[in-house]
Structures
1.
Amino acid sequence: MKIAIVGTGYVGLVTGTCFAETGNKVTCVDIDKIKVEKLSAGQITIYEPGLEKIFLRNIKEGRLKFTTELEEAIEDTEIIFLALPTPPGADGSADLKYVLGVADHLGKILKGYKVIVNKSTVPVGTADKVSAAIAKHYNGEYDVVSNPEFLREGVAVDDFMKPNRVVVGTRSERVKKLMSDLYAPFVRQGNPVIFMDERSSELTKYAANSFLATKISFMNEIAQLCERMGADVDMVRRGIGSDDRIGKRFLFPGIGYGGSCFPKDVQALIKSSDEVNYDFEILKAVEKVNAHQKLHLVEKIKAYYENNLQGKHFALWGLAFKPIDALINAGATITAYDPEAMPNVKAQIGDKINYAENQYQALEGAAALIIATEWSEFRTPDFDLMEQKIQNKIVFDGRNLFDVQKMIELGYYYESIGRSGSEK
Ligand code: NAD
C-alpha cells in the first residue's frame, strides 16, 4: 500500500519505518525542514533500539521517503496517518490546533477517496471534528478513522512490530478491510485487531494511560502506608502482583509518574470529563497523589537535615524538575548526571544546577546522593568507585534501585520509598 504519515516525530517515524518494513511505500511529511533534511540524508532523529537499521534499509530500498510538502506526500496514497502533537493547552485539555490545521489543509488538496487515520492521542469527538474540517473544503469521498498508538519510548519498535492489540475506530466496512490488511503482518501471532466505533477508540487510549497512572498512584499510597506501618512495599507488591487479576506491572512505587504522556493524558481526560459534567473523582485523586509523591523524597531529605538545606550540596542521578526546584528553593545546590535528559534540561533550566560528565563525578563534594530515575547504569553502579568518590555515605533513593540490606552492609545511610531503611 501507499501510505503518507503526517508528523515525523516519535510516533510518526516509528510508524512510517515499520510500515515500510512490511513492504508498504511510505512518505513521511514534517514541517520541520531541518528534520526532513536529516532524515532524507539517512540521519535518524530519535534514538530507539532497532530503529536505525530498518530505517536505513527501507530508505535504501526506496520504500521510505521524507518531504515537507503535504501535497506531494499524499499523491496516490490510499491512507494518510496523522501523528501530530497534541500538547496540553492552557486549561489542560489537548490542543488540537495541529491536527485540525492539517485536516483543514487536507480538505483543500484531497483528490479521490482517502482514509485519514488519526494516531495522535485526541479527545473523544476529534474524528468528527477532523471530518468536519475536511468537509468545509472537500465534498468527495473519505473516511476518518481513529487508531490510537500504544508504543512505549525505549521499546517502540518492538511495541509497533508486535503490538498486544491494535485498536481501530471505524464503522466503515471498506476501512475495516483496508486496516486489517495493513496490520496483518504485525498480528501474525494472533494478537487482536479490535474494531470499534471512533469515539470508543479515542477513549480507549485515554482510559489505558489513565488506568496505568492510577495503578502507579495507588501503589505510591500503599508505599506511604508501608512507611507508617513498618511494612515493606516490595513484599506487598510481590504479594499482590502474583494475582493475575492484578498483574505484576506498574506496581512499582517511586517519586510519581512523569514523562511525555501520562501527565498530559490524565489531565486531558479530567478536562474532557468536566466538559460533559462528570466529576472523574478517582482520576483527580490520581493527579493529586502524584503531585504529593513527586515531593516525597525531598520531604525525607528535609527531615533528615532537620529542615535546614541551606548551603548543602547534593548529587542527583536522573533529572526530575519538582525535586530540583524544591531543593534549590530550600537553599541547596545540585550537581546532576543523566545519560539521556541533560541536553534538554540544560536548554530549559541552564545553570540553575551543575552537570557532571558521569554519575561518579556527580558525587564529588556532595552531602548525599539522590536518585530520581531508574536508568540501568544507576541500578548496577561500580560500588568501589562510588565509595572512592562519595564523601558522605548517604543515599536517598526515589526509585528503590538497591537492596536495603546490601546498602546497610556497605555502610550507607539509605532511605527509599515504602521500605524501612537505616536508623538515624
Ligand atoms: P513529536 O512532537 O515527537 O512529533 C510530532 C511531529 O509533528 C514533529 O516532528 C512536528 O514537527 C510535526 N508537525 C507539527 N505540525 C505539523 C504539520 N502541520 N505538518 C507536518 N508535521 C507537523 O510527537 P510524538 O511523541 O510523535 O506524539 C504524536 C502524538 O502521538 C501525540 O498525540 C502523542 O500524545 C501521541 N503518542 C505519543 C507516544 C510517545 O511515546 N511519544 C506514544 C503514544 C501516543
2.
Amino acid sequence: MKNIAEVLEHVKTMGIAGHIRPDGDCVGSCMALYLYIRQWYPDIDVDVYLDHPKPVFGYIDSMENVKMQAEEKKEYDLFVTCDVSAKDRIALAGEYFDSAKKTVCIDHHVSNPGFADINHICGEISSACEVLYGVLSPEKVNRSVATAIYTGMIHDTGVFQYSSTSPETMRIAGELMKTGFNFSKIIDESFYQKTYIQNQVMGRVLAESIMVLNGKCIVGYLKRKEMDLYGVDGKDLDGIVSQLRLTAGVEVAIFLYEMESQTFKVSLRSNGKVDVSRVAVFFGGGGHTRAAGCDLQGSMYDVVNNITAQIEKQLQEQNI
Ligand code: AMP
Ligand code: MN
Ligand code: MN
C-alpha cells in the first residue's frame, strides 16, 4: 500500500481498532487515522474503538468520540487495525473485523503473521504511527493528526532513545513539529509524568528486584496483594520494565505482575543481544526484538524459571 487512499475507494463505513491495553502508539495511530479520515474524507462514516485509553491522552483531539465497547451488529465496508500484532489482540471490535467487507492491518511487530486482507507491516520501523505516516499524504497531516502521530512515536521510541529510532523517524518528527503542537508538554505529561503512587510502586519494584543469570538478567515483580494494597492496575505500571533495563550489566529485564491469581502479564526488554520477541512467541506472546510480552499462568516461581530458561538458552547460543 502506497497511500491509504487506495483502500478508501467506494468505502462508506469504516471502523478502526487497536490492541488490548492500548499504549501511546496504539492510541496515537488509531486516533491519527480517525482524525485524518474525518478531516479529508467527510463522506465516510468512521468509528474508532479503543479499550479505555488513559486520561493522559486527553490532549489528542476527539478522544470523546472513542467507542469503548462494541454495540450493535455492524458490517463495515472497511476495518483497519493499527499497532495490533495478532488477530486475537484486537480490543473490543474483533467481531467487526470478522464481518467487515475488507480488512487492513497497519503494524510494525515482527511477530505479526499478517491476519488481514491487506497487510501493511514494517517490522523495522519503530512505531505503528511512523508506518501510518508513510501511507498518509504529508500535506494532509494537520496539527491534530500530527499530535496523535507524534505521541505514538515518542512512546514506542522512548522519546527517540531506542535503537529502532532511525534518521527517517527524526525527519518525520521534524515535519510533524512544524505543525506547531506543544511537544515538550506532550512528552512530559503523556510519557514521563507519574502519579505519586505510580512512583512509589516503581520504587518498591526496583528495591525488591532480583538479579539472575550471573547479573545478565533482572527480574521485577508485583503480586496481586501488593497491587491491591497500592490500588494500582496494569495501566499504572508503564515504565517500570524500561527502568529495570537500564541496570548496568543487564542484557534482559523481566517485569511481571499478577493480573489475576496465578495469571501473570510478562514484559521483556533486551539491550540487543537477546531477541525477546523469540522468547515471548515461545510462550504464545509477541512483540519486537527488544521489547516483547506474553501472558503466563502458574506460580510466579514457575513463570520466572520458564522465562529465564529461554533467555539463558539464547545467551548460551552466543557464549555470553
Ligand atoms: P509491553 O511489555 O506490554 O509494553 O509490550 C511490549 C511489546 O510486546 C508491545 O509491542 C506489545 O504489543 C507486545 N506484546 C506484549 N504482550 C503481548 C502478548 N501477550 N501477545 C502479543 N504481543 C504482546
Ligand atoms: Mn502497542
Ligand atoms: Mn507499537
3.
Amino acid sequence: MSTGFFGDIKPIRFEGPDSDNPLAYRHYDPDEMVMGKRLEDHLRFAVCYWHSFTWPGGDPFGGQTFERPWFPKAGSGDTMELAKRKADVAFEMFSLLGVPFFTFHDADVRPEADTFAESRKRLDEIADYFQKKMEETGVRLLWGTANLFSHRRYMAGAATNPDPDVFAHAAATVKACMDVTKRLGGENYVLWGGREGYETLLNTDIGRELDQMGRFLSLVVDYKHRIGFKGTILIEPKPQEPTKHQYDYDVATVYGFLRRYGLENEVKVNIEQGHAVLAGHSFEHELALANALGIFGSIDMNRNDYQSGWDTDQFPNNVPEMALAYYQVLLAGGFSTGGTNFDAKLRRQSLDPDDLLAAHVGGMDCCARGLKAAARMLEDKALSGPLEERYAGWNSREAQAMLSGKRSLEEIAERVEKEKVDPRPRSGRQEKLENIVNRYV
Ligand code: XUL
Ligand code: CO
C-alpha cells in the first residue's frame, strides 16, 4: 500500500538514452549484460537511510529545511510510530527505484531511549519491522553500522575514548548492531571511526588510543566468528571531519593499522569517494591501493565539492570520474559482498519528495555509464595492453631472479658491469593514455 509520500509516481524504469522522462533510467538497465554479468549484479546499488530519511537539511548556519511526515513535531519527541512511518516511506523509495540494497545506522532507524537496554529493544523491534518489509519488497541489507559519533557521550571518541565506560558502551552498541545486521542477512558490517581521532595532542595519547582501537576491532572480529556472521567487516577510512585528525586516515593508514594488530586478513575497506579527496588522493588511487593490498571491499559513491574542502556528500554526476573508479573495481574482480552505497544527500534546498528520487536516478545512471565505459576499456585491453607492455622487461629470467630475491646487490652490480647494462628511457605516454580514456567516456 502506498504511503502517498511520493504522490502517484510509478516505479522507475529503464527507457533508454533518448528518453526525456526525468524519472526514468537512461543508462541503468538492471538486466543488461556487461562482461557476462547483469548490470544490477555489477553495481549492487544501496540507498543509505541516514541522509535520505533522517537528515533534516541543516547546516552550521541553519537547521531543518525538509518537512517530512515522519519528523517529530516541534516540542514533541521522536517515537517508534514515527520510526515505522519512516521505514514505510524508505522501503517505498527502495522499491520505486528498484535498488537491491539499503544501509543504516542504529540511530537512523529508531529513537534513542533513556537506557541502553531500551534502545537495544527498540532496535530489535525496528529490525522485525524491516524483516517484513524486506520479505515483501525483496530489498536486502548491504551493511549495517553503529552511530558512535552523534551522541555527546562519544565526543572524545568511542573505542579511543579516555573513559573505559565509553569503550564498553560502544562495544555493547556494536554487538547489538552486528546481531541485527546478521539477523537481516546483511552482507557486510561497517565501522566508520567518526570520532576516533583527536582535536589536540595536548590531551591525547596516540599510542594508547591506537591500542584501544586495535582491541576494539579484535573484539568485533572475534564476535563475528563466534556468531557465524558470514559478511565482511569493513573499515571506512576518512582523514578528518568531525575530528581534526582521524586514525583511519586513508587506505594506506588503515592497512598499516590492520597489520599492526594482525587483522589484515579479517577486515577490508569501504572506500568513499569524498573521503579519498579529503585525504588528498583520487578515488581511483584509494581503490587501486586497496586492491593491491588485498583489502578492497565496498564503496560509498558520493563526491565532495571540489571548491569547498569539506565532506559535502553529493550524488555522483561526473561520468569520466566514475569510469576510472569502476575500472579499478573491475580490476579488483568486481564486488563480492560489497556494493555501491549512495552515502549522499540532497542539497538543503531540494525540498520535494521527487528530488530524492531524481538524485538517486541520476547517480545510478552516472555509475552505470561509468561502469559500462570501464568494461569496454577492459574488454578492449585499451589500458591493460599498454600497461603490460610497459612492464614487459620484468618477464625476463634475469629480472624475475632479481625480483624473487635470487640475486644479491653484488651480483646485480657485477652483471651491470659485465653486460654493460645501459637502460634507455621510454615515454610514459600519459597524454596518449588519457586520450584513450576519453574515447570511452
Ligand atoms: C561519514 C560517513 C558515514 C559512514 C557510515 O562521512 O561516510 O556516513 O559511511 O557511518
Ligand atoms: Co560513508
